[in-house]
């Protein structure tokens, strides 16, 4: 049992604010401003985000990943295509990202559709990874049952013999790009009266910005 009464845990926010005068009209530029500040904010993983996907039964699942690039085409991450998230994205290519920078009392939600990167794009990033991480991409049958860690490490050792220097891109591994259709920027404020702004993509390609109730 938890010894502390967790219902009493609370923190009042008030470091920053977000309003109609300061928010950028372009959600990608607003994200870049906050992301650059997070990079300077002494976070362990400022590019960490929760990715939520949905399976064929409509049941959601989430996990923490690392953002590896973004521009106005979308937000890029890499994974095993045969993992649970890869299988769910194959069924339903819609997903949501959630960034949370607690020191700045900020959240960013991004929702949109997913597309695979080209093999060339995936390989360019793959070859930049550490040698052992590239071996790990081959060794891991991500999300499947593993009998023992020894089995995994033995597989890595065998791959080291097979690929002593150059490790090719696995056919089951690569990148995805989330193409945003909606952003939400959340800035914590005192008394739970937070600032929330939603950007919704309109048919003509413009972004509609609305303040939301906290």
Descriptive report:
With 214 residues, the protein is an alpha+beta fold. The chain folds into two domains: 11-127 and 170-212, Pnp Oxidase, Chain A (Roll), CATH 2.30.110.10; 130-168, no CATH class. It is built from five helices and nine strands; from the N terminus they run H-E-E-E-E-H-E-E-H-H-H-E-E-E. It has helices at residues 27-39, 84-91, 119-126, 131-139, 149-162; strands spanning 48-54, 60-66, 69-71, 74-80, 94-101, 106-116, 173-187, 195-201, 207-212. Strands 1, 2, 3, 4, 5, 6, 7, 8 and 9 form a nine-stranded antiparallel β-sheet that branches. Strand 5 and strand 6 form a beta hairpin. Helix 4 (131-139) packs across helix 5. The longest helix is centred in the C-terminal third of the chain and has 14 residues, at 149-162.
Summarize the structure.
The chain has 214 residues and is α+β, with helices and mostly antiparallel strands.
